[in-house]
Amino acid sequence: MCIGALVAACASAAPFAKTFRFTQPDGTRIEVWGEGDEFRAVFEHQGYTVVWDEATKAYAYARLSADGTELIPTQLLVGRDDPALNGLPQHLRVDPEVAAEQARQRFERWDAGMQIRRRWRERKSQLQLLRAQAAGGISVMAPPGFTTTGTKVGLCLLIDFPDAEAVVPREDVHEFCNGDGYTGYGNNGSVKEYFYDVSGGLLTYTNVVTAYVRMERPHSFYCDISKDAGEQANILIRDAIAILKAQPNYEAEILPTFESLSLEDEGELVACNVFYAGSNGGRWSYGLWPHSWSLYDVGAQNLGNDQKIFKYQITDIGAGLEIGTFCHENGHMLCGYPDLYDYQYDSEGGAGGFCLMNSGGHGNNPVQICAYLKYASGWAEIEEVSWRKYVEATLTATLGEPGFNKFYRVVKPGVDTEYYLFENRQQEGRDALIPGSGIAIWHIDELGDRDNQSLAYNTEHRNYECTLMQADNLWHFQNNMNSGDEQDLYYEGNPASGYQNRFSDQTEPSAHWWDGTPSRINAERF
Fold it and tell me: Would the pTM count as exceeding 0.90?
């Protein structure tokens, strides 16, 4: 394949990494920095690793066990004692293999409810069937039968408590989910607008937002930080649905508003988003710590009319609203996306800050979904290009323009699960926070491994499933250095050392297939 001139046309989006506040039992208010997800996390105070001490019900500075497999609380409490004076080292971490095994066990429990692996395998099988049916064609659109096209409706369940009343009005949440031209709380559009935009208008996703359900028990009952967050959320959602259904106007007025909810197999809601008032308790994976899972403990909750809640995501509403995490979690529930970040946390993941499902899903302006996941969702127009074909190619990154979500695909001969995708990304609008602008070249191995950052040629799929070919050849994602920079995409004038404004078997990075054979791609003049 020779792409003579690949032009980036433009006109004149999960895991957490942030500071958390907590009040120690003696009333001392502290801030700890945390990074992680549902499966593993680490917390620090001014660079010193901290852990929860069950005995004192407080955050304490940590020491490492003799075998390196456990972080153990010391008697030094955060906010009271000085770890430096006591000779504690900074940035303590347990043995990586132990941490990976602990995360794997948590993931297995999570996936048993969410069924992300099964749904993603089915989605890829659909893609493979589509490609087989379209063999020989030049340009195809993914079929509308995929589950993330058309109109989808989720449920947004609002909850408050006698001791933690709502401070964000229900009307604000409705606009956050469904508004047009929404800018509330500093967000770039509503959740509906995000998915409509990134899908190129092929998905309209709205939510039925309930009135606040006032719980009979206090917030402190559910946000018990000695108990697992999944168990507590299961109890909270079960109790909230029972209270909602006990309302005298439920059958006549409330239940009819649920008629539009989108359903999956056996009447399960496509998505249930739970916002609750009050704090999350400040202890990772306990109390009401935000997460996504399923009603695995209490069972699916029947709303009536054969509609059931099973999968959910839950978060504290606080004093404001951000679409980033909401969109990321609905990427799981609604679209069946896997995470693309590395669950072992020894690399950034294959898409870095260039995808909602990797490191780009934070805050009030999440970045777009990457080309690979758009393709799997049925949102992409794919132009197939062989190595024998010369193409003067133009790709647009502008929302609403003809050709938005059009990607070029170069397939490994005889292996349609390995290919390159060419996509235009620009630091504007929904992509204002991506690390850099230019042409993104994605090396896709549908049989690859999200957690394997190896760059070695192999035939066993010991590599990322989705790999951004980083134009500077520094492989920061794989080396766990950063989630992207301005030299990662292809464009004329890229100042990276050795950059040739070209992508081929002779350049670095190379266009070879994962088994080391040449692709004969020669893309140049970006």
Answer: no
